[in-house]
Amino acid sequence: MALLDDPPPWLLWGTGLAGLAAGLATVPLLLNNDRVDGGSAFAALALLICWSFIGAGLVAWRQRPASRIGLLMVAVGFAWAASAISLSDQPLLFIIGATIANVWTVLLFQLLLTFPDGRLTTRNEKLLAAAAWVSGLLLQIPALLFQAFPDPDLCLNCPENPLLLVDSETVADIFLLLQALIVVPAVVGLLVLLVRRWQGASDAQRGTFVPVLWAGGAVMALLALQLIGLAFNLNGPITGAIVPLILIAFLLVPFAFLAGLLRTHLSREAAVSRLLTRLRELPVEGGELKGLLAEALGDPSLRLGYWFPPVSGYVDQNGRALDLDQEERGRFLSVVESKERRIAVLLCDPALAGQTQLVDAVGAAAALALENERLEAELRARVADLQASRIRIVEGADAERRRLERDLHDGAQQQLVASALSLRLARDKLKSDPQGADELLAQAAADLDLATGELRELARGIHPAVLSERGLGAGLQALADRTPLPVEISEFPDERFPSGIEAAAYFLVAEALTNVARYANAGKATVAVARKNGHLEVEVVDDGIGGADPAGGSGLSGLADRVAALDGRLEVDSPPGRGTTVKAVIPCEL
Amino acid sequence: MGRTVLIVDDHAGFRTSARRLLEAEGFEVVGEAADGHSGIESARLLLPDLVLLDVQLPDIDGFEVCERLKQKGPGPDVILTSTRSGSDFGPLIAESEALGFVPKAGLSGRALEGLLA
């Protein structure tokens, strides 16, 4: 329905001209008939009603194309004009007009029911609308099958009824009663719904709601009264007095709507200008901005989310991550941007969805202040991140010490104990059993070799000597040589870097290669380390099974903290079945 | 006939060295066990005079093994051992029902006899 959602000028003009013509076409019918009182005065009023609805509807359609209210108002205008066909003396035209005579009231009913978005959404709304259509249009047809015209009570000067099946006033009255029985509860339901909607509305919304709802509600209540009068044959003074009241209240609806529109427009301008003044006057302290925006929008439930680039998501004022899927349930979201950069999101009352211009204007007015708060929120989020990573680093160091102690205890220490025992035994046997002593000494020497090997391995794990003495290139080559699968060092820098950066790069490659050897089921791995744009880029790629989870296991997450401590970042790309790429970018400009 | 000994330690290398050393000094090593539970089971079957018990075992630690060995009746004598020094375990050794502690590197028949006497 793109055409309806964004009406081009020709459509608006065409509809306007058609409305003008439809109105004019009713004039001869209104003037040349002896069925309505009031003559030219009534004709003028009827014409005014027709054009007011169509005109106000077109304004509403153009200003709020997302809402269907404008279209409904235009439809009411046309249906009102069409109902004048019933004034024709030509029997067929007369009966067509009589059939559709109530359509304008049904459309007005639907307009009020769905105000301000013009769409039937809830089950209750759909039920009430269906009742109105059944009563106003569907039951009109069987009623007319049994109603003979002219009728002394209803219409003395009407032409004959070509639809007449059987002339039975009783049956016609039953249908009329049925119509009343359906429409009266429907109108009561509508009025209840309107009162509830009014109670649930914000102050700003009430300003726009109230005039329309009052005028429209009055029309509906009066129409229901009129129908009751007809159904119970209370003709005469009551129904006679009601008609002009209905017409006046009816005429007020489009003007009330325009007044509401104007008032929204004015209150929007006032809200935005008040906000701008306040933002200029005082430095906005923490939390105050939210209050100012809530006031400008008339939405005390407003919440703010600030864009936090490192996680491509929103955080609250304290830097805590916002789960928008959870938060936005039923909320209207409006993203605030400045110079094509995302700043914040306004989580508004869903009723504000009908006032996107207001929300956009308020967001734009507060963009600078929001950006300041965003920076504060970002700072808090970064501090929280930093604290968390500091704790992880401390815990990681503890775990590393525990691992070292265990490795020493299980490895070298055991070998040393074994060789000490062998040496002691050999000493005891030196004289009595020289050959046995010789075997024990050989055993002790072998245990000492093992212990030396274990200690060498451990020392390398603590800090590889080759790295500190010969730099990254030699360190990486040593790693590649020790990895039990082919590793190609495709690129490495000749220069030296600060020891923290070299160590981070080295241990990243070491951990990545350990993971490749243990889990990736890979045929080979490639390591590339290069200096690019003031950053050291470290990349380890394998051709294994992929599916590595950087969050699982402390190996990679510990390295992510180490890289983050150097202001760098770590990315792991590991689609299942397509290998794993671990890449770190660490600033190294001195 | 020397005293019968059960060696409970998860390092096979140590068990072998200890067996050779103790046998050379007149002990009779009747069995070896690699963890706490199998140590308790072996002690029940073999009824050794002495259990040489490592403190750090893969399943339950030596203190608990000692407690269970002493639960029903007097049970075998227990001497705890470890690559660590006895002071690393604070009051735990003194509070246990073991006769005492010998560091692994200082293990000898004489050291055990000293505690058994």
Which terms summarize this structure?
heterodimer; A: 590 residues; alpha+beta; five-stranded mixed beta sheet; four-stranded antiparallel beta sheet; 21 helices; elongated; B: 117 residues; alpha/beta; five-stranded parallel beta sheet; globular
Task: Give a brief outline of the structure.
The complex is a heterodimer of chains A (590) and B (117). With 590 residues, chain A is an alpha+beta fold. Chain A contains 21 helices and 9 strands.
Structure description:
The complex is a heterodimer of chains A (about 600) and B (about 120). With about 600 residues, chain A is α+β, with helices and mostly antiparallel strands. Chain A is about 65% helix and about 10% strand. Chain A is built from 21 helices and nine strands. Chain A has a five-stranded mixed β-sheet with strand order 5-6-7-9-8. A four-stranded antiparallel β-sheet of chain A has the order 2-1-4-3, covered by helices on one side. Chain B has about 120 residues and is α/β, with parallel strands linked by helices. Chain B has five helices and five strands, in the order βαβαβαβαβα. Chain B is globular. Classes of the chains: A alpha+beta (about 600), B alpha/beta (about 120). The interface between A and B is medium-sized, with 17 and 16 residues.
